[in-house]
Design brief:
Blueprint lengths: L1 E9 L3 E3 L11 H14 L1 E5 H7 L7 E5 L9 E3 L3 H10 L4 E4 L3 H9 L5 E7 L7 E2 L9 E9 L3 E8 L2
This protein binds NADP nicotinamide-adenine-dinucleotide phosphate.
The site of NADP nicotinamide-adenine-dinucleotide phosphate has 28 residues, from strand 1, strand 2, strand 3, helix 2 and helix 4.
Length: 163
């Protein structure tokens, strides 16, 4: 199973101002990239806070939402440990998944060594404070594979995790 962690960052390194912040600050080029890769991969895994900011299932993709107690129409709610979830998806024929955030879910997969590639887009905004990509101390080395300009304002960085 190949896993892609996809996130948009402010220029000062935050993914959101707080847990309820909508992703209305990202560029149209970043939204297009997100749409294309999540549709190609076919599965997106996210946390309940992130799902609430979106408010409905992302169409034409399997939406998996981590929640302890919520139920939603059109998405699969899970509490499985990440490794078990990926094994389950593999048995169902999926070969790739997108880890779509937020901070809690990125951290949960990253700390277990279950992220292969990161796509980080950097947007020209500054939040000053907010949620970081990860919320725990980690010590992980990356290889920079590609840097790409997405439109006029946004940089996309592709990193491979050195396992
Ligand atoms: N910039 C970006 O690319 C990007 C991407 C994604 C999200 N975001 C932003 O990130 C923010 C949300 O991030 P967040 O860290 O606050 O929350 P999150 O990771 O989206 O969701 C956390 C929630 O997931 C559930 N959860 C976590 N671990 C679980 C487990 N092991 N089993 C079952 N449920 C579990 C819990 O929900 P319950 O306790 O309610 O059940 C928990 O409160 C939002 O502002 C969103 O817009 C930004």
């Amino acid at each position: 199973m190949k896993t892609f962690l996809i996130a948009a960052l402010s220029a000062d390194g935050f993914i959101a101002k707080d847990s309820g912040h909508l992703a209305d600050w990202t560029s149209k080029e970043d939204k297009k990239f997100f749409l294309e890769i999540t549709k190609k991969v076919g599965v997106i895994i996210m946390g309940q806070n992130t799902y609430e900011t979106i408010g409905k299932p992302l169409p034409d993709r399997l939406n998996i939402v981590y929640s302890y107690d919520k139920k939603y129409e059109g998405v699969e709610v899970t509490q499985k440990n990440p490794k078990e979830l990926l094994e389950d998806l593999e048995k169902r024929g999926y070969r790739e998944v997108v880890i779509g955030g937020g901070s809690q879910i990125y951290t949960m997969f990253m700390e277990k060594g279950l992220v292969d590639t990161l796509y980080l887009s950097v947007e020209p905004v500054i939040f000053g404070k907010g949620l970081t990509l990860f919320n725990k101390e980690l010590d992980i080395k990356l290889e920079l594979e590609k840097e790409l300009k997405l439109g006029e304002k946004t940089i996309l960085l592709e990193y491979t995790v050195i396992h």
